[in-house]
Design goal:
By secondary structure, this protein is an all-alpha fold. It has one domain. It has helices spanning 4-18, 24-38, 48-57, 72-104. It starts with a helix and ends with a helix.
């Protein structure tokens, strides 16, 4: 289940979210994709379920490299939604990221 690479990537991504180097949505998507490698059941994990739910709810929004394929008008509209969602999810995602770092940084 847990690989050294996945654990390290999970911690680095959680740290990047907390440092605001990547957005909350983008970070949640990355962390949700790593969940299968670091926990037995992400749905039963109080930290990863938050990230997985946000990832699922926002998979239609442009993040990361996908943004380059969106028109300026569509990006402007999506950015309003992204800002609202990230503001609403910030506390829960930051808590999950903090917990993930505590759980996996020194394992």
């Amino acid at each position: 289940m847990e690989s050294e690479y996945s654990r390290r990537s999970t911690v680095e991504t959680a740290e990047a979210v907390l440092a605001r180097k990547i957005g909350i949505i983008e970070g949640s998507i990355r962390l949700a994709s790593l969940a299968h490698d670091v926990v037995p059941d992400w749905v039963a994990d109080e930290d990863f379920v938050v990230l997985g739910a946000l990832s699922s709810e926002t998979d239609h929004l442009p993040t990361g490299s996908a943004r380059q394929y969106w028109s300026a008008t569509a990006l402007a509209e999506a950015d309003v939604a992204i800002a609202r969602i990230e503001q609403n999810a910030k506390e829960d995602v930051f808590r999950a990221c903090t917990n993930i770092i505590k759980r996996f940084a020194d394992v």
